[in-house]
Design goal:
Residues 1-27 form the signal peptide. The protein has 399 residues and is of the alpha/beta class. Helices cover 23% and strands 22% of the residues.
């Protein structure tokens, strides 16, 4: 599910030979490294030192509307970093209104107090729909043209001179999202709900283009709806998958019709269009889920995809863990990833190799022999790897 913020504040078997390791960053003139983003939306304090550090190594940072001062500091520390503002497409927040007056800076595009009553979605009994588990989040009618225009006009007016882009949270696909089994009377099917979102994204697109604001939408669970990711991205500058491949240390998405390939293809498809992709695996930092997600990301990454792991759902405060592997320079990709065994995919680079076994967790290891000795994550030289299901590896070689 999409996140909602409140304004208050493996073991891999390997054959071993002796080889000298090339230090990271010395693999070639054209560096090819991971990109990572920071979602800072819980209004926790950020020191100037933290900004100085993270601005240099993150490609994007997402902030709240009331953190324009932080946006300026990030840009001063690194003019290349892209600053985005968080805005929920799908709700207005009653807690952001006091004594009949909406807060000046909102996590939404429309204030609760000023919203037209016809913009609120209702169930079949006429009751307004509130996000389950998120008190004070009231679902709005994204298919309503007046709401669309008010949302976009407000966001552009408050953001265009401050931020580089907008993270549009909750671009939904299922009609009962946030209220299981209950669909809005206006959109009783998933198909009608998706049509409403397409209407909003298409109808407001030019406003953001004209304002010079990039748009990335949170499209969690797009994999469950064939073609949904691409249809929404057509009207955006990129997409964010909040739940990507790993949903916990022991809950790893393997290959099936709505599984591994569909999420990896999100990156591939966006790269082909020159569009942004942010992916967020959920895990504690354990080895298997990290390596599985990270290697899968590298299989598809081009110039526009970034990764950021998270342990606790909706804990968007400090920067996500920075991995040493993010600084490894694998050199130029030698092509797209290709299948080298059932559900086993490999991508070759000038200075390394990435391999993923997307078979079911616990399935037998598949042995892949390398064309030359390479160095694994532990610094050991290897001539082959044996990968069980839902594991991955990133290898480096002399170049």
């Amino acid at each position: 599910m999409g996140f909602c913020v409140r304004s208050t504040g493996i073991s891999i078997l390997a054959g071993v030979l002796a080889v000298a390791m090339v230090p990271a960053g010395q693999a070639g003139e054209n560096e090819w490294k991971a990109e990572s983003f920071w979602l800072h939306m819980n209004s926790t304090p950020i020191s100037d030192q933290m900004i100085a550090t993270e601005a240099q190594r993150r490609s994007h940072v997402v902030l709240n509307a009331w953190e324009s001062d932080l946006a300026a500091k990030f840009k001063a520390a690194n003019p290349k970093i892209q600053t985005f503002v968080y805005k929920d497409l799908s709700s207005t927040r009653s807690y952001a209104c006091s004594n009949g007056v909406d807060d000046s800076d909102l996590p939404t595009g429309v204030g609760y107090c000023e919203a037209d009553p016809s913009w609120f979605l209702r169930d079949s009994a006429g009751n307004r729909l509130e996000y389950g588990g998120y008190e004070g989040h009231w679902q709005m009618d994204v298919g309503n043209t007046a709401y669309q225009n008010a949302w976009a006009d407000n966001v552009v007016a408050s953001s265009a001179e401050v931020f580089d882009g907008v993270l549009m949270d909750n671009a939904l696909f299922a009609c009962d999202t946030y209220h299981d089994g209950v669909c809005p009377a206006a959109y009783p099917t998933d198909e009608s709900m998706r049509a409403a979102y397409l209407s909003m994204l298409a109808g407001t697109r030019q406003k953001f283009v004209d304002a010079g604001l990039k748009t990335v939408a949170n499209m969690s669970n797009a994999r469950l709806h064939e073609g949904a990711w691409d249809s929404y991205v057509e009207h955006l500058d990129g997409g964010f998958d909040e739940w990507w491949l790993t949903f916990g240390d022991k809950d790893l998405l393997s290959e099936y019709e709505q599984g591994w390939s569909r999420q990896v293809e999100q990156i591939t498809a966006n790269e082909a269009k020159g569009k942004i992709t942010w992916v967020q695996p959920h895990h504690s930092g354990a080895e298997q889920p990290f390596r599985y997600a990270y290697a899968s990301y590298l299989l598809a990454k081009g110039e526009h995809a970034a990764i950021s792991e998270i342990e606790e759902t909706d804990r968007y405060d400090g920067p996500s863990r920075w991995r040493a592997e993010y600084d490894w320079d694998l050199g130029t990709p030698l092509g797209a990833h290709h299948e080298v065994g059932k559900n086993v995919h490999q991508r070759d680079f000038e200075c390394g190799t990435v391999i993923v076994n997307a078979g079911r967790t616990g399935s037998a290891p598949v042995t892949i022999r390398l064309d030359q000795t390479q160095t694994n994550e532990a610094g050991a030289p290897v001539t082959y790897v044996a990968l069980p299901g839902t594991t991955g590896t990133v290898l480096r070689k002399e170049c």
